[in-house]
Amino acid sequence: xANEFSLKYGCNPNQKPARIFMKDGxxxxxxxxxxRPGYINFLDAFNSWQLVCELKIATGLPAxxxxxxxxxxxAALGLPLSxxxxxxxxxxxxxxxxxxxxxxxxxxADRMSSYGDFIALSDTCDEQTATLIAREVSxxxxxxxxxxxxxxxxxxKRKGTYNIIRIDESYKPAExxxxxxxxxxxxxxRNELKIDDNIFNNIVTDSKDLPESAKRDMIVSLITLKYTQxxxxxxVKDGQAIGIGAGQQSRIHCTRLAGNKADTWHLRQHxxxxxxxxxxxxxxxxxxxxxxxxxxxxxxxxxxxxIWQNIFTSKPEAFTREEKKEYLSxxxxxxxxxxxxxxxxxxxxxxxRSGVKxxxxxxxxxxxxxxxxxxxxxxxTMACTGIRLFHH
Length: 392
Fold this sequence. Notes:
Blueprint: E1 4-7, E2 18-21, E3 30-34, H1 39-59, E4 63-68, E5 71-77, H2 83-88, H3 98-108, E6 117-121, H4 127-134, E7 138-143, H5 148-155, E8 163-167, E9 176-181, E10 184-189, H6 212-226, E11 232-237, E12 240-246, H7 251-267, H8 271-274, H9 284-295, H10 299-305, H11 321-329, E13 334-338, H12 346-353, E14 356-361, H13 368-377, E15 381-384
Parallel strand pairs: 6-7, 7-8, 13-14, 14-15
Antiparallel strand pairs: 1-2, 3-8, 4-5, 4-6, 9-10, 11-12, 11-13
């Protein structure tokens, strides 16, 4: 290890020189085992590493995240996958270890956004996880260690240029963090807030039903939000994020964006999507793009234009708006977290359309009564933590 690492350039090619280094002269807590990570790669790596570490500590389960442009596209715990999830994540031909399950879930939450992701694993990367990663389009990975076989597989990816970072899991950063903007130095205490199920005690709705599975999903949501560019909301189901909205100026737009992603995740499991007659030579990214179009309301135009002949062995039936609405109306048990208070009940109305049953948010809006009233209308359970999780 060394105390600095030279970068090809910063955020953009015109931003030179660029490096990462330890101001106190100590060694960097990372070792680059493959490739040459760039400025944004390291931003993704260090933010994503914190996320998976906190998930592992809070739940005791292996965790993984898929990062793009300093926000997670997916985050998940290493829980077993159903046969349907294995199919839509393209892993039904693999034997999956818990850490491999975690990454399959993280990658599968929003496969379009995860294209070219940076991966973080809370645990040692094993052969099964490396095999999964090897066949996806990805920029790099950070983990506390790699088995010999996993490292061999990853080093062969992208003709040997795949970015592989090993981090010292005992590393503890300074309590005060600084950054420069426009030549001016900002300083603040690190956000060391501990998120566990002890912060969900203030349930403000008529419904007080909050099963352990929902508490776990609230933990996943809040820790994910802690490392997502604000404004942000996160929908979670069965230990994995299924829709993340990041960096929106309006919270309702954030809730809609993440809700649409959650809806797509659910609709990918519909039998019409599962049985689409793809030609054998269609690559996974092209399948993902096609599925996204098929689920959208524009697909009937694609059918009419005859483009389907390049993709499918036979013409598929359109997935009608009525069919999608009916399917989504049966979804239930989804958890929604927000990094700051919901200012209006319209966020709750939108959340209901995506099967949300449990909500966690800071509270503190002058319109809390309206938000609570809207939750009560749908028999939702909402906990207010009093904790804001802005990340900039």
